[in-house]
């Protein structure tokens, strides 16, 4: 074995022994202060926000919901009724916003409008917004993971 081959093997060995250390150093760390994943109840509902936040802001947008983003608003037809939709516009993928004065979801990109139950009122969107089953559970708002 000549000097060049010896140094090549030493370099390969050094890299191989350093690889596990590099992988551990680059892996995401978890801490006890991180919040746990919201628990899913036996009936498939999981929390997406607090009633107080809904009352304060008029809507709750949860982009981390497993079934896709969810936008929760109070249904103007009932005091404690709430509605939940996937806020992704079916036309161009922009997030719709709830306009309480119009009682509609409105897309800021091309002005598509949707009813509280996701149906298209005004295009260019052709498909309705997917809806979720939602309810109040104490001081929390819970939504069922599958779209209706």
From TrEMBL:
PROSITE patterns: PROKAR_LIPOPROTEIN (PS51257), RIESKE (PS51296). GO terms for cellular component: membrane. SUPFAM superfamilies: ISP domain (SSF50022). Keywords: 2Fe-2S, Disulfide bond, Iron, Iron-sulfur, Metal-binding. CDD domains: Rieske. InterPro entries: Rieske_2Fe-2S, Rieske_2Fe-2S_sf, Rieske_Fe-S_prot, Rieske_Fe-S_prot_C. Residues 46-143 form the Rieske domain. Signal peptide: none annotated. This is Ubiquinol-cytochrome c reductase iron-sulfur subunit. It comes from Limnofasciculus baicalensis BBK-W-15.
């Amino acid at each position: 074995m000549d000097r060049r081959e010896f140094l090549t093997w030493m370099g390969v060995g050094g890299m191989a022994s350093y690889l596990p250390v590099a992988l551990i150093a680059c892996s995401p760390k978890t801490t006890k202060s991180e919040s746990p994943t919201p628990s899913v109840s036996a009936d498939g509902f999981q929390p997406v926000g607090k009633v107080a936040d809904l009352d304060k802001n008029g809507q709750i947008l949860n982009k981390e919901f497993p079934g896709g983003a969810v936008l929760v608003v109070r249904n103007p037809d009932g005091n404690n009724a709430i509605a939940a939709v996937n806020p992704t516009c079916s036309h161009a993928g922009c997030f719709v916003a709830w306009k309480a004065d119009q009682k509609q979801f409105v897309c800021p990109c091309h002005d598509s409008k949707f009813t509280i139950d996701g149906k298209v009122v005004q295009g260019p969107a052709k498909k309705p917004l997917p809806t979720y089953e939602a309810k109040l559970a104490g001081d929390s708002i819970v939504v069922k993971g599958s779209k209706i």
